[in-house]
Design goal:
- There is one protein chain.
- The protein folds into two domains: about 5-65; about 70-195, Transferase(Phosphotransferase), domain 1, CATH 1.10.510.10.
- About 45% of the residues lie in helices and about 15% in strands.
- The chain has helices spanning about 30-40, 75-80, 80-100, 150-160, 175, 180-190, 195-220, 225-240; strands at about 5, 15-20, 20-25, 50-55, 60-65, 70, 120, 130, 135-140, 145-150.
- A hairpin with a 5-residue loop joins strand 4 and strand 5 (about 60-65).
- The longest helix has 26 residues, at about 195-220.
- Keywords: Transferase.
- One of its GO terms (molecular function) is transferase activity.
- It comes from Stackebrandtia endophytica.
Length: about 250
Amino acid sequence: MVDEEVLTGGNMEPVVKVGDTVRRVTGPWTPAVHDLLRRFESMGITETPRAQGIDEQGREVLSFIPGRVMADLPPPSLWRHSLLRSAGGLLRRLHDASAPLVSMEATWRQEVNPPVEVICHNDFAPYNLIVGDDELVGVIDFDMASPGSRLRDLSYLAYRLVPYAEDAPGYDPERHGTRDRRLAVLIEAYGGDYSPDAVRQAAALRLEDLAVFTDDRAETTSRSDFIAHAAMYRRDAERLRSVRGG
């Protein structure tokens, strides 16, 4: 019998590692996600998992990306501008590659979020980014992907990595750059013509939606930590809405 190692860190269904693969629950959204991952592979994007079908237990099989979760890095590494730039650049490559898929007939796990421009990851953040040898080498957990706007993903990445989140351990603007400067770096790395205000206000809207989703998760799972997370998202959204300029 092949050993299975339970992977920690997720808030949805169990995920296990089997050899050099990852196994996870499937659903009506799985074919669309695998089409997306195959699209990335065909475009030469090396940082995404490879879809390898379904196993005998009905779980999807994905290639395992070795490395360390970015969110687990110590602050001097986590808040490096080089990782900020790499994350913005990778998100742009994923969006550009995914754009032809927005018109395909597909079932996604999350709802479509107009204006539809690309397939959004919908959780492109340090806890889903993988670092190896001090470089960004991967992004995981595409099961919540769905069609949406470029700004939807970019603004959430800004929330987590600029950062605007309350839970940003060790971030020091004097050591790691002010938020205004870091947001400018991220926008430049992505290459979009977005104003800082547009990114912040999009992040606030995203957080308000996320708070509602997290409240629902708290009710269905009876997990009190989800209630605390939802409250944090609302506080952060309120602060983001109050920021102007820069």
